[in-house]
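Q: Could you write out the predicted structure for this multi-component system? I'm mainly interested in how the pieces pack against one another.
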Amino acid sequence: MLEAVDLTCRRGDRRLFEALDLRVAPGVLLHVRGRNGSGKTTLLRALCGLFSPESGMIRWRNEDIRRLGDDFRRDLLYFGHLNGIKSDLTGVENLRVAATLDGDAVHTDDLWQALERLGLAGFEDLPTRMLSQGQKKRVALARLVISKAPLWILDEPFTALDVDAVALLQDLIADQVADGGLVILTTHQEVALTSGQIERLDLGSRH
Amino acid sequence: MGRSFLALLRRDITLALRRRTDVLTTLFFFVIVVSLFPLGVGSEREVLRLLGPGVVWVAALLASMLALERLFAADYEDGTLEQLLLAGQPLALLVLAKVLAHWLLTGLPVVLIAPLIGMQYYLPQTAILMMMLALLVGTPVLSLIGAIGAALTLGLRGGGILLSLLVLPLYVPVLIYGSGAVSVSTIAAAESQPYLFLLGAFLVLALVFAPLASAAALRISLE
């Protein structure tokens, strides 16, 4: 379970949100909503431990994430605005490095299958700089297929994706939630879940 | 842990080999700077022999600086650095892998080309050998210290100049003992071993502390 208690975040002089409490239980998808600039990305980065909140505490399985350190980060998969792939490496190479760094021991066949599942069959061996925006995003999202992390934090995962890829990503998210994982995401689209529970958090609406 | 170290090392070397210009620029920069001095001060044997060790080391410092700026910047721009920070592996170890790749691509070529440079400066054979040894021990220190500066100035506007102001003063001890080792080895009565030991001590210190300091700096820079 991921918990945030009395969280206050500030960006420069502007206070984005204060005294925010949230709890995400296993098997739950938390949909963070809010206008542009309401602090969605900052909240997600704080939950990952990339951004230190001004005050408040974030707990993963009842322990402070700052004390857990690498133990927390191994349970986490973060997908940010940047794809986090190298443009000079091929899709397979990118995925292999990402999986090794995440500590997942994977077979080369799994990498190819993951990319194929994301509709990249025939593009696995091309440097990713030759791919379109949407395809690059698909390469980055292939990590979701391989990852065994129980906590996914996804920042705007649906942008630049076509209809098929959106459906596929929804399936992946639904599977993760059905397996008892936690998903926290921001998106301006509605996400349909076949099982599990969706909770919503509105940022910047209390003013 | 070891697997992620190797994976990152291999990734950085693969990337550099696919984009060879970055590596070659550093090496050519070094060769050109070193070759300019004989043209400027004339080709008198005694003068060049006196200047040689210092010039080679200063050029090595500058060449190492040149490539430092890109050490973390490329990963920062495409978001892979963010993923490294969240990888759940000791960040200092990952930083060490990146620094090692950086040294293999920029420091080691300088060490290997040193004999040619030495001939240009009429250095005797013992001095050339000593220069290679000193560079072999000293250039990794440059990469390690530079990594701290590169991590601290990441994402800043005009970071490149700030980086040189931060890092070059810290290079001074390496410069002094590195060129000292070479100069002393041309004098028959003097012993250059103490210089090498001191350089070795710097290397050990830098190996222990620089990755930790760079990792901490990276976490601050990415906030």
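A: Regarding packing and overall arrangement: The longest strand of chain A covers residues 14-24.
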